[in-house]
Amino acid sequence: MEVRFRLLDVFCDRPFAGNQLCVVPEPPADLDDAGMHTIAREIGFSETTFVTEAGGDRYSMRIFTPDQAALCPPDPLGLTPRERDILGLLALGATNAQIGSALGISPATVRKHLENAYGKLGVSTRTAAAARVIAEPHGLRG
């Protein structure tokens, strides 16, 4: 498989003196996390970034190091990716059954995730959680 990439030299004032990073702007559509991690290990730079979606001024990316499968910044609210997904659907007015159906989990599992998220958000109701989601300046997407 051929994967095109760009090398960046950051945090320095002269070439190859700083932190070298690799960016893969258009990875193959069938490249999964395991494949991305393999490429990051082979390249061996401190970080390899795969741009997985790009459009206008928005993009999604996956960042890998040679030693770590996925490097993601911590959620500022301490939420897990699943809790963020559930809260996003909750904010749209979905019931636990609808959220469970959309995510392939049971309503009881949705309820447990919501209990955990409520504690992290400092709220005790669906309405308060939805309001908190809507109020976040960058939303709850990771």
Question: Could you provide a short overview of the structure?
Answer:
The protein has 142 residues and is an alpha+beta fold. It has helices spanning 33-43, 81-91, 96-103, 107-121, 126-135, and strands at residues 6-10, 19-24, 47-55, 58-64.
Question: What keywords describe this structure?
Answer:
single chain, 142 residues, alpha+beta, Diaminopimelate Epimerase, Chain A, domain 1, Arc Repressor Mutant, subunit A, 2 domains, four-stranded mixed β-sheet, 5 helices, 39% helix
Approximate helicity band: 25-40%
Task: Please write the CATH class name of the largest domain.
Answer: Alpha Beta
**Annotation field: number of helices:** 5
Low-confidence stretches: none
How much strand content do the residues show?
A: 15-25%
Number of strands: 4
> The CATH topology of the largest domain is what?
Diaminopimelate Epimerase, Chain A, domain 1
Largest sheet geometry: 4 strands, mixed
What's the architecture of the largest domain, going by CATH? Roll
User: How many structural domains does the protein architecture include?
Assistant: 2
Secondary-structure element sequence?
EEHEEHHHH
What structural category do the secondary elements indicate?
alpha+beta
| Widest sheet: strand ordering | 1-2-3-4
Termini separation (Å)? 29 Å
What is the approximate shape? elongated
